[in-house]
Amino acid sequence: MIGVLVALGVPQRFAKAALIVLAVVLALVLLAVGKCSYDAAIINDHDDKRSATIAADGRKGEANAAVDRRADDAAISNQSEEVHNAVDSLPESTTSARQHARACVILRQQADANSARIPASTGC
Question: What is the pTM of this model?
Answer without folding.
Answer: 0.40
